[in-house]
Amino acid sequence: MDIEIVAEGLQFPEGPVIMQDGSIILVEIARGTITRVWGDGKTEVIATPGGGPNGAAIGPDGALWVCNNGGFIYNQMDGLLVPGNCPDDYSGGRIERVDLATGKVERVLDTVEGSALKGPNDLVFDRDGNLYFTDHGKTYPRHRDLGGLFYLANGASEAKELDFHYTSPNGVGLSPDERVVYMADTMTGRLWAFDLEQPGQVTAASPFNKGRVVATMPGLQYFDSLAVTAAGHVTIATILNGGITTITPDGNHSHVAFPDPFVTNICFGGDDMKDAWVTLSGTGKLAKCRWQEPGLKLNYYA
Predict the structure, then answer these.
(1) Neighbours of 71 (CB within 10 A)
(2) Residue 141, exposed/middle/buried by CB under 10 A (0-12, 13-18, 19+)?
(3) In this structure, are strands 53-58 and 43-47 parallel, antiparallel, or unpaired?
(4) pTM for the full model?
(5) Is 133 a member of any domain?
(6) pLDDT per residue over 138-179, tens digit each?
(7) Residue 214 to residue 176: CA distance in whole angstroms
(8) Domain count along the chain
(9) How crowded is residue 158: how many other Cβ atoms within 10 Å of its Cβ?
(10) Residue 15's domain is classified under what CATH number?
(11) Which residue of 29, 51, 114, 251 shows the fewest CB atoms closer than 10 Å?
């Protein structure tokens, strides 16, 4: 596979969003910015939420909705930038809305059912404008928070918990028919599926977890963000075993390697939806390649 480096010198990029003008909007978590990348490698900061802007998506209102994890301590390891524990200047987890025309940042949500969000990570909108998002929790020297999957109905001011007590929820996406929510759990290298009775209502898979396990990776490899293809396959950015892991709904999996152990996100675009943009976060790069199958068009983009 031919890989083109579209931009470099980024500070832990994630959350790429393809725009109609051909640019890519992404977050630089370590920099606390929302950054636009043009095809010639030019970049420009369009908003500065601070904290740790993470997953991003265009909402039904045309604004950029962002999960903000509140920040990390960063370490340099063998030339790679690596996020770690919760910092002393942690600014709190929240969901934010960014006006792309002005750069104004609005805090939409920072609690769910009376509990504070700790490290919101990724989000996806369904066709009715309802929002599903994950909270990854925060890590400390001797303990870490658990996390979960949450739901904010279109127009609502309060979110609800769909399921909790997961080790490290990360990427989230919807099946093409929007009857399944997929969630990647980082530290377990596991893909979960939540079957929906209707938007925001999950059919419990067991007495212990509402989700069901689709696949768990062998050995030590971590899952980050994900995107779904038009055929319903789940492509997951994979850390340590740096690349994209594709998992089918029946649990079969394959892997495409990229030149960075901290591959964190993938998004699809182009006329045939086979252009893929992949964030190589450890080395601070945005890569582009042609994927073997078309990605699923998201419900909103601008």
Answers:
(1) 24
(2) exposed
(3) unpaired
(4) 0.97
(5) yes
(6) 999 999 999 999 999 999 999 999 999 999 999 999 999 999
(7) 16
(8) 1
(9) 11
(10) 2.120.10.30
(11) 114
Q: Find all residues with CB under 8 Å of 56, minimum gap 6, and list them.
A: 15, 16, 17, 25, 26, 27, 34, 64, 65, 66, 67, 123
Between strands 131-135 and 120-125, the pairing is antiparallel
Do residues 54 and 69 touch, judged by C-beta distance below 8 A? yes
- The domain containing residue 70 runs over which residues? 9-219
pLDDT, one tens digit per residue, over 56-72 is 999 999 999 999 999 99
59 in Cβ contact with 125 (< 8 Å): yes
Provide the 8-state DSSP code for 252. Answer: -
User: Looking at residue 204, what DSSP letter applies?
Assistant: P
- Token pair of 160 as six digits: 């609800």
Return all residues near 43 (Cβ < 8 A) that are at least 6 apart. Answer: 7, 9, 10, 35, 36, 37
Question: Does residue 117 lie within any of the structural domains?
Answer: yes
- Evaluate whether 242 touches 255 at the Cβ level (below 8 Å): no
In a domain, 28, yes or no: yes
Query: How large is the greatest C-alpha to C-alpha distance in the chain, in angstroms?
Result: 52
